Structure formats: C-alpha cells, structure tokens
C-alpha cells in the first residue's frame, strides 16, 4: 500500500512539474488562438453588458424555438393521421427516439438519487 502511495505521489509531482514548465506556454497559445473572442477592456461593466446581451438574445429566440416545436408537433400529428402509410424505417426511428428519451429519464433519476440504483439510503 505504501508503494502505491509513493507511486501516486511521484506521478503527481511529475504532473505538477510538467504543468509548471508548459502551462504558461499553453495558456499564451490558447489566448492567441482565440483573441477574436476577447473583449477589450476586460472590465466588470463589459462582462455585465455581455451577460445581458446573452440573456436577452436567448429570450428573443424563444418565439422561433416555440414555432419550431409546434411545427414538429404538427408533423407528428400528420404522421399519426396517415399512419397506414408509415414505413418501417420511420417507425424504427420513432421507437429509437422514444427509447432514448426513456434512457435519459432513467439516467436522470439515477443521478437525482445520488447514483444509487435502488434509491435506498443506508
């Protein structure tokens, strides 16, 4: 057990040394590659302005997303009315979509319970 602890300490020390040598170079390169996204001057006021722009831009996109949602609902209604013309491929895609939604629901439930499968807390 002590040897594994020493190995872990050694690996952590090597990683720290690597980051201390190459971290600033990586940081500078990253900023240089993405300089078109950096706002000048970097002030609190500019950050507040950008956060408000993001919020209101998202708010303004709600009607378009709502319209897209209702188009999808109308498409599903149309498919249901003409279900006798439905192809096997379309039914398979719908079944896979339903299965994916169910799987995400189950995963969310497991995460919500703290990654326990039974929900029992000892």
UniProtKB/TrEMBL annotation:
Source superkingdom: Eukaryota
Pfam family of the protein (one): ATP-synt_G
GO MF: proton transmembrane transporter activity
Coiled-coil portions: none
Major location category of this protein: mitochondrion
An annotated GO BP: proton motive force-driven ATP synthesis
Keywords of the record: ATP synthesis, CF(0), Hydrogen ion transport, Ion transport, Membrane, Mitochondrion, Transport
One GO location term (cellular component): mitochondrial membrane
Localisation: Mitochondrion membrane
Family: Belongs to the ATPase g subunit family.
Name of the featured protein: Mitochondrial ATP synthase g subunit family protein
UniProt source species: Prunus persica (Peach)
């Amino acid at each position: 057990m002590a040897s594994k602890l020493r190995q872990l300490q050694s690996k952590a020390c090597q990683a720290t040394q690597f980051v201390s040598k190459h971290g600033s170079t990586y940081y500078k390169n990253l900023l240089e590659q993405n300089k078109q996204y950096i706002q000048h001057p970097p002030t609190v006021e500019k950050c507040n302005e950008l956060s408000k722009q993001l919020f209101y831009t998202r708010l303004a996109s709600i009607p378009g997303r709502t319209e897209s949602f209702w188009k999808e609902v109308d498409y599903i209604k149309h498919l249901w009315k003409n279900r006798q013309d439905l192809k096997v491929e379309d039914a398979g895609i719908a079944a896979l979509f339903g299965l994916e939604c169910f799987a995400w629901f189950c995963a969310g439930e497991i995460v919500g319970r703290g990654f326990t499968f039974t929900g029992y807390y000892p």
